[in-house]
């Protein structure tokens, strides 16, 4: 059967372990049908591939058994064979692990329609991008990248409810520290600056919706600014501790501008 190069790669990846799971079969059949192949014919084609693998395995076993009997005849042969098998097995396990990872990645790419978080964002598949971000453990930086793109896209498409929901559902990773060393609120301020800039970028789109406009403006976070020193370090000024104050000037200015 003639298949596309992409479908052939998916088949090869799925058969890395010598068989095709029911989930893999569904994905492969769906892809084949989308390429114009007959569903029943392709299903039979997959059966023929798995049968071929089983036949080859059976033939290999019939050849290996006599060889194993020959090895077992002498202790020295057994010891040598053990180390040979151990060496080969380690390499085989590494290859199989890589094949499984490749198969899993190919299936995810086929199911989600994008190959990575960045690829999903480029294709406006934001929920799929979230799935990749969660699996990769990228943290708030990945989530910020997704939300920035998501809000910008939905605002440009005038899907304002989606843009509003996206930014309002963001959960902060860092909190305001009322006292500490000079850098203790550094990550908090970075996150606040990012969040506030995204909110400010879409306020103009909500000027006709006072309810949502007000919620957006009041969601603006205060920056942390260094106040007075409250604890002087005996060792190094790096360890000096200060109080921090909340700077709400951005929110106050927006409240005044929009008369909220």
Describe the structure.
The protein has about 260 residues and is mostly helical. The protein folds into 2 domains: about 5-110, no CATH class; about 120-260, no CATH class. The chain has helices spanning about 5-15, 20-35, 40-70, 75-110, 115-120, 125-135, 140-155, 160-170, 185-200, 210-220, 250-260; strands at about 180, 225-230, 240-245. Strands 1-3-2 form a 3-stranded antiparallel beta sheet, with helices on one face. Helix 7 runs antiparallel to helix 8 (about 160-170) and helix 7 (about 140-155) runs parallel beside helix 9. The longest helix is centred in the middle third of the chain and has 38 residues, at about 75-110. It is elongated, with a radius of gyration of 30 Å. The N and C termini lie far apart (about 65 Å).
Shape: elongated
Taken as a percent bin, the fraction of beta residues is: 5-15%
Query: What low-confidence regions span 5 or more consecutive residues with pLDDT below 50?
Result: 95-103
Residue-averaged pLDDT? 80
Give the terminus-to-terminus CA distance.
67 Å
- Give the class from helix and strand content and strand pairing: mainly alpha
Distinct helical segment count: 11
Radius of gyration: 30 Å
Number of domains: 2
Keywords: Membrane, Transmembrane, Transmembrane helix
Transmembrane segments: 78-101
